[in-house]
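Forum: Protein Structure Q&A
Topic: Joint prediction for protein chains with partners

I've read a bunch of threads here and the consensus seems to be that you should model interacting components together rather than docking separate models afterwards. I'd like to see that in practice. Below is the full input, 403 residues plus whatever partners are listed. Could one of the regulars post the assembled result?
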Amino acid sequence: MDFKISEKLQTILDMINEFVEKELFPLEPYFNDGDFKAAVPIFEEKRQMVKKMELWAPNVPKELGGMGLDLMEHAFVSEALGRSPLGHYIFGCQAPDAGNIEILHKYGTDDQKRMYLQPLVDGKIRSCFSMTEVNMPGSNPAMLETTAVKDGDDYVINGHKWFTSSADGAKFAIVMAITDPKAPKYLNASMIIVPTDTPGFNLIRNIPVMGHSGSDYASHAEIMYQSCRVPQKNLLGPEGHGFIIAQDRLGPGRIHHCMRWLGVCQRAFDMMCNRANDRIISEGGKTLASRQLIQSWVAKSAAEIQAARLMTLHAGWRIEDVGTSEARNDISLIKFVVANTMQNVVDRAIQVHGGLGVSDDTVLSMFYRLERGARIYDGADEVHQLMVGRRILREYNERKNKK
Ligand SMILES: Cc1cc2nc3c(=O)[nH]c(=O)nc-3n(C[C@H](O)[C@H](O)[C@H](O)COP(=O)(O)OP(=O)(O)OC[C@H]3O[C@@H](n4cnc5c(N)ncnc54)[C@H](O)[C@@H]3O)c2cc1C
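Posted by a regular:
Agreed with the consensus. Here's the joint model:
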């Protein structure tokens, strides 16, 4: 196992770190209490700078116009970008577009690639992924209600989705819908590309999340698909393969999510340490850093971050070594360990900042609000824990029965 960073990658990381600190940290208030949509022209200027520096779309193959970094290289980049909530967006590797780019690249027809994939990679349009439903449990995705029924050359889609991130202003949605209710479980649903200007694509609202509805990229929409008619050529991949394609979106993508969260951890940790060193809390100039309780939080956070980081790099290495399927326990473990590490570290950083920590004057409150969802999306903590626990116990049982 080798987690060494090459000279070339180190140069890339140095450039990214400098850019994120100098150009993006000052723009964060636009993301927090400002209107994201109104700030898009300012963000666009930064995106052009990134393109000029040839750092655009680090995860995307070179032939499509990205940097062509491999899984582990992009993992380190994702960590560096995660230090700002704007990082991935400004560098053209933000969710949910990154996942949609992957599946369009793998499963898209030539027409779909020309119409949707290339403009998406180029940052000219945005997309969203519409799977979770209001009335059905996202934790059990087999229980979908949305249907896509064939009618002539079209599919007619009906369903009620929500938490479709970044739908506001997106050019198209990739919608998960039941195409054959009689087919076996997990072979009954398909992914279908739905342009958002199709009649029957009704964006009801951006859902307020902890007091913020957000706008444009920074939002989560509730959508009614009401007799929404699209041509059958908008089917992505084979009919009935929706769940198989969904798995492709998740495996390696989790490494990048977790590394992004570790970027959040690192930023919160830096802020906690700097605040502890600077904040005088008693006569004689004693700072918070002089208090053993705070020293213990710093040590605990450092240990938790390092452990979570090594677990994530190990899971990435396992994916490369044995493949996503064999590495599924490692992937599930990091999903809930890193999400909880992030929550703990951000929470401690807020506590060290006192009132300032819960105010919107620093990025910490934004991290707290934006990242709480990490323990819910892409599989809630409990779902991953149950899956790993069940598999481990089954293996022990099989070993015992072999003896
Ligand atoms: C910020 C954010 C962004 C999102 N973006 C998208 C998106 O772009 N597209 C999209 O389609 N969806 C998106 N989602 C939705 C997300 O995928 C779902 O919220 C998630 O799958 C959980 O589904 P649910 O909300 O229906 O919760 P439920 O399925 O109702 O589960 C509720 C809770 O029950 C517990 N639970 C579930 N199963 C078990 C079990 N077997 N044993 C014990 N406890 C259990 C878990 O704690 C879980 O959180 C997003 C969600 C969030 C928060």
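The domain at 127-240 is CATH 2.40.110.10 (Butyryl-CoA Dehydrogenase, subunit A; domain 2).
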